[in-house]
Structure formats: structure tokens, C-alpha cells
Amino acid sequence: MAPPILKLDDIFLSFGGTPLLAGADLQVEPGDKICLVGRNGSGKSTLLKIAAGLVEAQSGEVFRHPGSTIRYLEQAPDFAGYKTVASYAEAGLGPGDDPYRVTYLLSHLGLTGEEDPTMLSGGEARRAALARVLAPEPDILLLDEPTNHLDLPTIEWLEGELQKTRSALVLISHDRRFLEKVSTATVWLDRGMSRRLDKGFGYFEAWRDQVLEAEELEQHKLGKAIEREEHWLRYGVTARRKRNMRRLGELQGMRAQYRGHKGPQGSVQASASDAQESGKLVIEAEKITKAYGERIIVAPFSIRVHRGDCIGLVGPNGAGKTTLLKMLTGQLAPDSGTVKLGTNLEIATLDQKREDLNPEETLAHYLTDGRGENLLVNGEQRHVTGYMKEFLFQPEQARTPIRNLSGGERARLMLARILSRPTNLLILDEPTNDLDIETLDLLQEIVAGFAGTVILVSHDRDFLDRTVTSTIAPANPESPDGRWIEYAGGYSDMLAQRRGAIEERKKAERTAEKPRATSPAAPGDAQKSKAKLSFKQKFALENLPKEMAKAEGEIAAREKKMADPNLFSKDPAAFNRLAAEMEKLREGLLRMEEEWLELEMLREELEG
Fold first, then answer.
1. What's the DSSP call for residue 273?
2. Cβ proximity of 592 and 547 under 8 Å
3. Cβ distance 471 to 494 under 8 Å?
4. Nearest-5° angle of CA 165, CA 99, CA 68?
5. 3-state secondary structure of 164
């Protein structure tokens, strides 16, 4: 086993009251890809900041291997003093790091590098921060919610980058699919303590349930043991004669342990408040369009949304998801076409920008709209502190200003307010941002059991697969041109249907070419008129296997060089150059394989 390059041992930190961290550990070895999981407010971000040296623990040991480089992804990057995004990203490079990495990363993250940092959106700022921490390829990458504000193509690209990086990773994310694909180990932060599972996130939830069941069983056994000792104290002959002080001390210790046991944090318990039932037809859009100048955002698009539907809206940033959503809900008029909204609609919206939150307002004032201590939920008067408990807020937080809440707590607070209002049409714009996995489970159950209609915009593939009945996506995701298509099912179903459509189109194209190729050159001479491969196609069919073998040999040669464990430390520029060459060779090999397969299928058709 390799020695750790980062080790946090018995970390303690408290801000008054219950300790946030009480004996937490974290050990990172070269090549580790660790996901750090736990409820909102469990101290995940704080532990990551302690690892990065940004926060000091009150007690415990922190070891960082001398000479190791660490990069931490900031939630709110500081762009002060930088004129362009490129200069900001390049400032993260160390001596000997390859500047080309900045250009490569910015281009894949959709930035030119010439942008003014003061004019960036939240998503663009996150992309710039990612380029800065990824560019130097440090020994340790500490990433706190790296997928927030990223679109699906960028998230999938980032997965590939993190899977192949030589850096050790510790990452926090609410995106289940992302964690499953990237992580190889899991650290669970729970009630101030940490537990480690040397498997990726895909195994975490079953393991967590086993741990909690075993803990509950141990607590039950402890209660029974206390009962037996108390019986001895009252009725035991030896006890009456001389009072065995040792056993009395042990009993007092068991009582203290039993009373002091802090069970797992409760689950959010909530459901949406039902409004009067809407009409059967909720939204009917007929050939709606929208363009800004020459750029077409929505080409003619039609859809009928019925009561009980759950529609997912996906696509890259800038494709026009928000524009289409506003048109469907009547907030924005189309350039042409019509939108008809159904009867009795009560619409509730969760805005991804959290613009509805006044940071100076208290939690109780926000939930009740300043109307005293009570609010009406599903026709029932509820005290605000009791309702807050259902969303894991403590009663003493009722007078806390919203500015003191974490990102996850703010998302949970907005969710609490929305679900208290009568509604039959839920609009959820990036609802999964900053929510912990358990709250996501609750939101999934709410959406699945909601009697009304839901339209949600999300980049969370797992959440989409678990909730939506149909998915609206751009017809051309690589270069959106305003055409949108509705697919049945979730995100994975959409991908499968899209692949099937592409295969059907290619098959139709091959079929259309076959009659022209086999048309007779002269009547009555069928054998002579039989279609044949062109000289160019024959040459490619014969030579492509040789070219593929050559490419495979070049890839293998570079893999052998990159296998040298000292190459990266001795010559990082050479390592990066080999990695870039391998990527191009693999892309070329894939194109040759596809071309050869198509030619071989065509040859079989013509000869058959």
C-alpha cells in the first residue's frame, strides 16, 4: 500500500453547541478517487477546506506530504486582479506546468479565455474555476460540487477527464450518476464521524443501510443489558450485601452511553399541498417559434401536456431550455404559433437562481410571508417550527437570517415554502442543485406521487430517469438549431431512442443507395449489371485493417511510455503530449473501424 499523501486524523471542530466534526478522518493515497458523502450541514465542505488548509481544526492532526500539490475548487471564485479568464486560469499553473492545458480545458468547457471575469454567469464562473484547478494536474484535487451549473455534455466530458487523471480526487456531489462513474472509494460523514468504504458510490447506499441496522441492533442490546443490571441492583443478593461498586460504575457508564447515543439525522417528511384539480389538458402548444435576431431558439414545436404528466427538459446551456419553458407556461409570448393553458391552474416555481430569497429575512418570516407563527398546509394550520422540523431545520433556526444558511439549506427552505402552497402545476428549474442525496430521494417521491403536473429542467440524469414520463431535448444536441423533440421516458430512454433513430437513418440511406448501384446497365444482362464496390471502396476495404493495426501499435507504444511512473514528475510536458497524441489516435482508430464496418456490410449486401 502506498503511503498517504494527505491524512486527516481525529479532526474536531465546533461552532458552539453540537460539534460539527468530532473525530473525523480522511486518508488519501496516490490514485484515490474518493467521494465524500453526507447530509447537508454534516461538515463535508468544512472537512474539504481543512484538507486544503483554508480552515483550521480545533484539534486533530493534518498531514500533507511535503512537495505534494493540492488544488481546491472554490464555490465562489475570486477574479479580482484578472483581466481575462485565461489569465485567471493560468495563475493556477505551477513551475513546469504546460500552458497548453489551459487552452485545452477552456475550449472543452466552452470558454475562449478572452472573457471578462466580472461579466461571467454562475455557470461560466464555475467552468473557469474548473480550468484553473484541473490545468496543473496536481497530486490532489479537492472538488466541491463540480457539476453545479454545468450542462449534461460538459458533465459527461468532466467524467472522462476525472476518470483518466493521475491526480488523486476527493469530491462532493449530489449527482448520483457522476459519483458512480468517477469514484472508487466512499467516505461517509455522519454525526461528526467518518466511515470509509473501499468501493465506489454505487455500493454506498446498501452499505449505509447495513451500518445503520447494525447500530440499531447494538443500541437495542445495550438497552437489554441495562435492564439486566438494574434487575441485579434491585434484587441481587450480592448487591444487597456489599454493593459491588465496579458493577455500579459499569451500569452508570452504560446508562450514559445509552442516553448519549445520537441516532442518524432524520429524513425530510413532506408532500406537496394539493390545489383544486386542473383541467385534463394542462398545456397545448401549436407550432410555437422564438428567435432572437438570426438565432433560432425554438423552431415550430407542438406539444400537449395532460394532467399527471411529468415532463423533463434537457439540453446544453444556451440551447433555449428556459425560453421554451417560459413559453409553455405563458410567461413569454411566442413569435408565432399559439399556447393555450388549461383551467384552474395553480403554478408553483422553484427558481435555480434562488432569486426569491432575501438574505436578511428570517426563516419563519419567509415561510409564513410575515403572517405570524402559523401557516396553512393542505388546509391545516401548522406552527412554523413544527413545519420546519419536517425539513430538518431546528426550532432555534426560526429567527436565523437566511444569509447564514448553506446552499443546500437554502434549497431545502425554498422547497419547504413551495410545497406548503396549493399547486397543481410544479415548475422545477434545476431543483437538484445543492440538495443532499436523501433530500433528493424525498423530492423524487414527491414528484412521483404528485397528483398534478410537473415540468422540470435538470442536468441530473439519475433524477430524470427516476421521475419523468417524457423528455424534451434538442434534435441536434451538438449544435442546437431550435428544433426540439419529445421522447417517451427518461434520459436513458431518450438516448436509446436517439441512437435507434440514427441507426434507422443510416440503414435507410444504405437501402436507398443499393437500387441505384444495382440498376442494370443493359437489359437482359443481369449478371453483368450486378453492382460492385468502387475502386476507392475496394482499396479502403483492403487497406483499412493495415491502418488500424498501425494505429493500435502506435497507441500501445505510447501507453508503454506513459506507464513509466516517473515520466510525469520528470517531464510533464512529454506526458501531456503523449496523452493528447493518444486521444487523437483513438479517435482516428474509431473512425477507421466504423468506415471498415460500413464497407464490409455493403460488400456483403452486394455479394449476397
1. P
2. yes
3. yes
4. 50
5. helix
Q: Can you say how many angstroms the Cα of residue 128 is from the centroid of all Cα atoms in its chain? A: 18
User: Which H helix or E strand runs over 455?
Assistant: strand 453-457
- For 267-282, the pLDDT digits (tens) are 555 555 555 566 788 9
Q: Cell numbers of 67, please?
A: 512537495
pLDDT, one tens digit per residue, over 27-43 is: 999 999 999 998 877 88
Task: Say which amino acid occupies 472.
Answer: I
Helices 152-164 and 122-134, axial angle in degrees (round to 10): 10
Q: Confirm if 64 and 39 have CB atoms less than 8 A apart.
A: no
Longest dimension (CA), the chain: 122
Q: What whole-number distance in Å separates Cα of residue 317 and Cα of residue 110?
A: 10
Buried b (16+ CB within 10 A) or exposed e, 545-565: eeebeebeeebeebeeebeee
**Helix/strand number for the chain, H first, E second:** 20, 20
Q: What are the grid coordinates assigned to 603, written together?
A: 460488400
Helix H segments across 120-194?
A: 122-134, 152-164, 176-182
Q: 206 Cβ partners below 8 Å, 6+ apart? A: none
Residue 311, H or E segment: strand 310-313
Give ∠ CA 383-388-392 in degrees, rounded to 5: 150
Grid cell listed for 558: 505510447
Query: What values do phi and psi take at 520, rounded to 5?
Result: -65, 135
With residue 555 as reference, give the H or E element that holds it.
helix 535-562
Number of neighbours of residue 585 by Cβ within 10 angstroms: 18
CA–CA dist 456, 332 (Å, integer): 17
The C-alpha cell 431512442 sits at: 497
pLDDT for position 258: 56
Nearest residue to 417 via CA among 454, 458, 365: 365
Q: How far is CA 595 from the centre of its chain?
A: 35
Sheet of 295-306, strand order: 295-306, 281-292, 336-341
- Between CA 470 and CA 491 the distance in angstroms is 9
Calculate Rg over the CA atoms of the chain: 30
The pLDDT score that the predictor gives to residue 553 is 83
DSSP percent split of the chain into helix, strand, coil, nearest 5: 45, 20, 35
Q: Is 25 strand, coil or helix? A: strand
Average pLDDT over residues 497-521: 65
Whole-prediction pTM:
0.67
